[in-house]
Amino acid sequence: MSLQAFVDYISLEKNYSAHTVNAYEKDIESFSEFCFQEHEVSDIDTINYSIIRSWVVTLVDEQISNRSINRKIASLKAYYKFLQRIGAIETNPLAKHKALKTSKKIEVPFSEEEMKRALAQISFKDDFEGIRDKLIIDLLYTTGMRRAELIDLKIDKVDLKEKTIKVLGKRNKERIVPLLSSTVNLFKKYLEVRITLEFIFDKQLIFLTKSGNKIYGTLVYRIINGYLSKVSSKLKRSPHILRHTFATHLLNKGADLNSVKELLGHSSLASTQVYTHNSISELKKVHSLSHPRSKD
């Protein structure tokens, strides 16, 4: 009963995405199963930290990554915080838990030269899929939107005259992102070929497969990875790296951190600051070239 109430709370009141809600629910169910099988505990609402610690040890023994374990514990922590909120428990058994150490993931953005080559030198077919693929790459790079946001884009949210697009982000927060003139022109070209599809199952969705269905995450990944492999030798070529590239290139050109935060749809500056480490090298170059004492 408590789990369903928690799921309703994070989905209806907190507006978490369906993906996040599903992940939280699975983590809690996994812990509940462990408690029953290993400790014969059927009610996880009133347990002590020692059982949680034994679950963590089991996960480590199963060679689950520290990052994944921390995510599972975060789900549990949110669940017990909710139980406190509704008065079901007095103390959170995870209140003093310390997250496992994780190594920082180094995500190397594409260079400006790589992106120029991707959009100017790659030969995209002049058909529905070719034009669509080029727009997807262009849009992810010039707006910094997330893959899920791109997949769910609606036609009535695009204003080509005003050169803006409304993006529905996490927790159903909508933001307005400007479009470059070159992106607008590519948009117009895509919409012209889009209406030639024989079947369109949802006329409001912008990005479709050639059979007229909603585009899906793995296809977007394959598009980015496939085309960018032609201009870059980087091992990681994903939609998120394009978002990372967008933020890094703006910061390298002197964009204000708060402005980048708004464009990315982040709720706090802390989330945006992870992109600043790549711009430090550019700042060092500017500092070295511009400061009066740099030649001393």
Provide a brief overview of the structure.
54% of the residues lie in helices and 4% in strands. It is mainly alpha-helical and 296 residues long.
Fold topology:
Layout: H1 2-13, H2 18-39, H3 49-61, H4 66-85, H5 112-120, H6 128-143, H7 147-151, E1 158-159, E2 164-168, E3 174-178, H8 181-194, H9 217-228, H10 239-252, H11 257-264, H12 269-272, H13 279-290
Antiparallel strand pairs: 1-2, 2-3
Helix pairs in contact: 1-2, 2-4, 6-8, 6-10, 10-13
What descriptors fit this protein?
single chain; 296 residues; mainly alpha; DNA polymerase, domain 1; hpI Integrase, Chain A; 2 domains; three-stranded antiparallel beta sheet; 13 helices; elongated
Task: Describe this protein's structure.
With 296 residues, the protein is mostly helical. It has two domains: 2-85, Orthogonal Bundle (DNA polymerase, domain 1), CATH 1.10.150.130; 118-287, Intergrase catalytic core (hpI Integrase, Chain A). It is 54% helix and 4% strand. The protein contains 13 helices and three strands. The protein has helices at 2-13, 18-39, 49-61, 66-85, 112-120, 128-143, 147-151, 181-194, 217-228, 239-252, 257-264, 269-272, 279-290, and strands spanning 158-159, 164-168, 174-178. It has a three-stranded antiparallel sheet, with no helix packed on it. A hairpin with a 5-residue loop joins strand 2 (164-168) and strand 3 (174-178). The longest helix has 22 residues, at 18-39. It starts with a helix and ends in a 6-residue tail after the last helix. The model has no long low-confidence stretch (mean pLDDT 87).
